[in-house]
Amino acid sequence: MERRHADILRDKFGEELAGKRVVNLRIPDKFQFLAPLLVELLRERLQGHLTQPF
User: What's the rounded Cα separation, in Å, for the pair 6 and 4?
Assistant: First the structure.
């Protein structure tokens, strides 16, 4: 996610995001839907942010 995307989220959902952290997984927007490498990156980078394993 680029900084402008985070700004858009805050503009649209400011109240809902108040006091919450927006996490940038730093995954480029170049993958096809459910591409194996994308799924692997998501699993790897989300692991520390989710409360239950997937």
Answer: 5
The helix (run of H) or strand (run of E) holding residue 39 is helix 36-46
Q: What does DSSP assign to residue 29?
A: S
- Looking at residue 1, the DSSP 8-state letter turns out to be -
Q: What is the pTM of this model?
A: 0.66
pLDDT in tens, 29-44: 899 999 999 999 999 9
Read off the tokens for 48: 């520390």
- Evaluate the CA torsion angle 54, 46, 2, 14 in order and state its sign: positive
